[in-house]
Write a structure and sequence with these properties.
InterPro entries: Endonuclease-V (IPR007581). This protein is of the alpha+beta class and 255 residues long. It is 34% helix and 24% strand. The chain has one domain: 2-Layer Sandwich (archaeoglobus fulgidus dsm 4304 fold). Helix 4 links the parallel strand 4 and strand 5.
Length: 255
């Protein structure tokens, strides 16, 4: 990971925290699109997933990936794999400043080259409101792109009293089938997201939170509808294709 001196890191964190607070006020936490109001999401035709994959041993070079899938068929309509050089350091809670610029560039390329394939919603491998300052990467990408975004994380972020304790594990065990969920309620009583059993065969949930321009209930229902496996297909395809790009362009050295 990119190293910084302690004073420089502290100054950077203050600047980024201030920017997150400013942008946080722009997050829209309710449904804004006609398709979101329909129980079957009629009118939704294109869903996107984004991801960054890294070369083993190199945390500054990554493949920034965008995929657009048809809905409800979940077939890949478009993919964009781009090698990028990350210059911002990795600091916990500030991942968006490291990765979002490259995801925005991918969306811009799509808008310029094939505007008819622009997604109507973007799934982000990470958190939205479920974040230390309630402004994770899904919120960041949503506000700056203007697109509805959903954050889907594979692991629970321990924030505001949320923890993978015995109570949390018992709630997970009580999820009987794909589509079942329970709210992630902080110690202050605020709901920051939901734990979702995303498909029948997975006992491990995913953690869904609002990114932008979508309600939590709609985000959870849409996530479930996009799952053929535990991880929603847009994110899964972005991950598969970015890793495949790295394997084909940067094959591991023989040992």
């Amino acid at each position: 990971m990119t190293q910084m001196s302690a004073p420089l890191a502290e100054d950077q964190m203050k600047e980024w925290s201030s920017e997150q607070s400013r942008l946080r006020g722009l997050v829209i936490q309710h449904d804004t699109e006609p398709w979101q109001q329909d129980p079957h999401f009629s009118g939704l035709k294109r869903v996107a997933g984004v991801d960054l994959s890294f070369i083993k041993g190199d945390d500054a070079s990554a493949c920034a990936q965008l995929v657009v899938l048809s809905y409800p068929q979940l077939e890949v309509l478009y993919e964009d794999s781009q090698m990028v050089a990350l210059t911002a350091p990795y600091i916990t809670g500030f991942l968006a400043f490291r990765e979002t610029p490259f995801l925005l560039e991918a969306l811009k390329r799509l808008q310029e080259n094939k505007p008819g394939l622009m997604p109507q919603v973007v799934f982000v491998d990470g958190n939205g409101l479920l974040h230390y300052r309630e402004f994770g990467i899904a919120c960041h990408l949503g506000v700056l792109s203007g697109l509805p975004c959903v954050g889907v994380a594979k692991n629970l972020l321990n924030v505001e009293g949320l923890a993978k304790n015995e109570e949390h594990r018992s709630k997970i065990a009580a999820l009987q089938k794909g589509g079942d969920s329970f709210p992630l309620t902080t110690s202050s009583g605020k709901v920051l997201g939901k734990a979702l059993r995303s498909w029948d065969k997975s006992s491990k949930p995913v953690y869904v939170s609002i990114g932008h321009k979508i309600s939590l209930d709609t985000a959870v229902k849409l996530t479930h509808s996009c799952c053929r496996y535990r991880v929603p297909e847009p994110i899964r395809q972005a991950d598969i294709r970015s890793r495949e790009y790295l394997r084909s362009h940067f094959p591991p050295a023989d040992t």
